[in-house]
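Standup notes
- DV: blocked on the single-chain target, sequence here:
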Amino acid sequence: MKQAPEIYDYLSREDIAAFSEKSDARAFLTLSVQLALFAAAFALAILWPNPFTIVLAILLLGGRIQAFGVMTHDCAHGAFFKSPWLNQFVGKWIVGAAGHVPLEAYRRYHLDHHRYAGTPDDPDKWMVKNYPVTRSSLKRKFIRDLTGQTGFRDLVREFKTFTWEGNGPTLVFHLVLTGTLTALGAPWAYLLFWAARLLVYPAIHRLRQISEHGVVPDRDVLDARLNTGTTIPRWWERLFIAPCNVNYHLEHHIFAAVPPYRLPALHRTLVERGYYKHHDCIAHGFGDVIRRATRPDEVTPIAA
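- DV (later): unblocked, structure below
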């Protein structure tokens, strides 16, 4: 995405170079934390099986599926690991596989989103073009998500477009996951993944889409402060909805080469230097996102 010249009034070339520096150690730490949470969700349900731990495990897994997708996104940009080989391998065979995201196909599609954001050619615009929507409309969308209708639709699409090159890593992931859980004596726990994938993740994914481009002042201009949003989440929202700093989407659109572990520092610097002044582009929590994304239902006048 082309940057408005004003950004260079707030960041020097040296600043940009520092924020864009990749670290394999920090990337591995981010990946390790998310894999540990993924394993902990299964362990929680297997070791203490009860309705509370089962629900909590499913919610945690939904957040991890989101995290795997986010890390695949960062690998697709070459903005996670310093090593291009690691971005490719981890993006395809680990996080892309677990998140059901074919790396190469996603990269081709997503780079067009960055190239054309703020123009009619943005391939993601259709997802958010009607926001704000009525409260009843958003409620219907979330009902479809939480009852599995959206997840099942997406799964059918995956089956119809299956190729070994694109989806083979996901098949391998599921074979490894089922084999591991069976070896642990808990093959039933495999269903937890699908409960998260079909019943929880679609709602999380929708919230992310809305927060990024659904609550912005103007999707048809090039200034990222007008066509993209950032959300400052609460701690539990980071855990379940916005892992891996995916909430700093405006900053990501300004400089897509900045790795996710440096986005908070970039955000703080831009706030301190007044880049967002006079722009209502930062939501505080996902409750604020929903408020911005909705409008009151239309009231039909009662005939006299």
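- Follow-up: The chain has one domain: 5-295.
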